[in-house]
Structure formats: structure tokens, C-alpha cells
Design goal:
Layout lengths: L10 H4 L9 H22 L6 H18 L3 H4 L4 H21 L2 H8 L4 H15 L1 H6 L2 H16 L3 H5 L3 H23 L10 H9 L2 H13 L19 H15 L1 H51 L1
Helix pairs in contact: 2-3, 2-6, 3-5, 5-11, 5-14, 9-11, 11-12, 12-15, 13-14
Length: 310
């Protein structure tokens, strides 16, 4: 059975650790973190470098996953729209961005053994990255459609109430949110191997494209004159929660929360763009210098030949 709260939420209660038989997310998150740290340790054992900020980003990303799935946020998210929306946005935006900045795919490619079971896993990973299906799914148009489609397709249809009837349905929905976020940021950030590679300008457009539709969703939630979903209309009377006020808070969270991580990601992509431009300019300058040196040497040879003829 999934733990459900009996007292009204406070910050302390929300952040209180809470695990039960349905705590699949925390278990998978911790196993993923252990595998990542084992990979980093393997590189260090072979005296190979791995950027510390990649590790810090990945660890922080997993920590944010645990923050909203291994605490009482999980239970309160089943009863209050505002808490659920905060949980959803942390997973699909903040956690996904930090995890992908940790470059887990690059680490896996570099550390998986080339023999035995590890070699089979490595071939499977590379095969998936190079597959036609992965290239289609990772295309910016497809990832954007999935990201926005999951938003409108769940909250503006009866599907949300169906999923929220059980702990398994809730876990499946949260998995979808995290997965769509990983897809979106995996392509937009361009860190490590990815099925569909795009230039920084295209990735900036990919990152910003869902913005207007995301904002429209927030406005629709805030301006709704009736509850959008039935799940959150039955908060305990002793909590003093007004359903429409809580729904307004959920809309405000959608409006404000996604902006900061998105702007941070845009800054990262812009920095990658500037760095790539400088590298290209450096290569071009070096090539031009080499051509100029060769031309000057040619002129010197011609001058020497003319002198010898005299």
C-alpha cells in the first residue's frame, strides 16, 4: 500500500523521508547513481579524467529525483494539485536537465567493458543510439511533440484521473514525465552521444519552442473556472484547502518554475555555440596561416631560382 498523509502539508512534512512498498522511483534512482559512480571510479582507476562538474550535476539530478519521490511529497502529490505539479516539473525539467548534463551516456560508452556481458551491453547501447527508431524519436520535432503532447494529453483528458487511481498509475505517469524531459534535454543540451545531432542554433530553437505552449497551459490552469481533474477535489476538510485556490497555485507553479532551468539550459547551449565558433575560427586561422607560410616559401624559392640563373 502507498503511504497517504493524514495531516495538512507543511514544508517540514513535505521534506520528511517516506518509503513504502511502492517506492520504485527511489530504488531505481539509487541503483542508477551507484552505476554512475562506479563508472567514474573505473575511469579514475585507469587514470582517465572525468569532469568533476559532470559528476556533481548527475548526483544533484538524482538528489532532486529523491527529493520528490522518497519523501512525503509523493503522498501529498496524490492529494493536492499544487504539490503534484511541483513534483511533475522537478522531474521533467530540473532533474532531467541535471541528469543529462552529467553525460551518463558518454560515461557508459567509455566505461562498459569490451568483453563478456559488458561488451554485450555496450553493443546494445551503441546499437540503440544508431538505430533508425532512436533517430526518429530523438528528432527535435518529435521530442517537442511528445513533451507538449504528454502535458495536454494527460491533464485535459480523463487519462489523468484514471492514472491517479492507483500507485502504479502514478508511478507510470511520473516515469513518463521524467522520460520526456530526458529526451528533450538530451537533444537540446547536446552532451555526449545522441541519435540526432543538431547545431547550437537549432538546439536553442528546440529548447525555446515549447515555451509558448507551456505558458498557455499555465494560463489555462490558472483561469479555469472549475476543477480540471477530479482527483484533487477531495482534500480532507480539516486541511482547509480550497480546490480552486490550490489549482491556481498549481498554474502559478507551471508559469514560474520552468523558466529558470530553461534559461540556464539556454545559457549552456549559447556557451557551447561560442566555444564551437571559436574552435572553428581557430582552425580556419591556422589553415590560413599555413597557406600563407607555404605561399611565402614558394615566393622565396622562385626568388632563389631567379638569383641562381643570374
Amino acid at each position: 500500500m502507498m503511504w497517504m498523509p493524514e495531516q495538512p502539508p507543511t514544508l517540514l512534512r513535505l521534506l520528511t523521508p517516506q518509503l513504502d512498498a511502492t517506492s520504485v522511483f527511489p530504488a531505481v534512482a539509487l541503483l542508477t547513481l551507484a552505476a554512475y559512480l562506479a563508472g567514474v571510479r573505473s575511469l579514475h582507476a585507469r587514470r582517465r579524467q572525468w569532469p568533476w562538474y559532470r559528476t556533481a550535476s548527475f548526483v544533484t539530478g538524482i538528489a532532486t529525483v529523491l527529493l520528490v519521490t522518497a519523501t512525503q511529497v509523493m503522498g501529498y502529490g496524490m492529494m493536492l494539485f499544487s504539490v503534484h505539479m511541483l513534483q511533475k516539473l522537478v522531474l521533467s525539467v530540473l532533474s532531467a536537465m541535471l541528469i543529462m548534463l552529467g553525460a551518463p551516456i558518454s560515461l557508459a560508452v567509455r566505461t562498459l567493458p569490451r568483453r563478456g556481458l559488458g561488451a554485450a551491453c555496450r553493443r546494445l547501447l551503441l546499437g540503440l543510439l544508431r538505430s533508425r527508431t532512436a533517430k526518429v524519436v530523438a528528432h527535435p520535432a518529435v521530442t517537442t511533440t511528445i513533451f507538449i503532447g504528454s502535458l495536454y494529453g494527460i491533464y485535459f483528458t480523463p487519462l489523468f484521473d484514471v492514472l491517479m487511481r492507483s500507485a502504479a498509475g502514478n508511478v507510470a505517469m511520473l516515469t513518463l514525465f521524467l522520460g520526456t524531459g530526458l529526451l528533450a534535454f538530451g537533444g537540446a543540451l547536446g552532451v555526449g552521444p545522441w541519435p540526432h545531432r543538431a547545431s547550437p542554433p537549432v538546439r536553442l530553437i528546440e529548447l525555446m519552442a515549447p515555451g509558448p505552449l507551456h505558458a498557455f497551459f499555465a494560463v489555462a490552469v490558472m483561469m479555469a473556472s472549475r476543477p480540471l481533474v477530479q482527483t484533487f477535489t477531495h482534500a480532507p476538510q480539516g486541511w482547509g484547502v480550497d480546490v480552486m485556490t490550490d489549482q491556481l497555485a498549481a498554474g502559478n507553479i507551471v508559469w514560474g518554475f520552468g523558466e529558470v532551468p530553461t534559461v540556464a539550459a539556454a545559457v549552456i547551449i549559447y556557451a557551447q555555440w561560442v566555444s564551437a565558433t571559436r574552435r572553428t575560427a581557430g582552425v580556419t586561422d591556422a589553415r590560413a596561416d599555413a597557406e600563407l607560410d607555404a605561399y611565402n616559401a614558394h615566393l622565396e624559392r622562385l626568388a632563389a631560382q631567379a638569383t641562381n640563373r643570374r
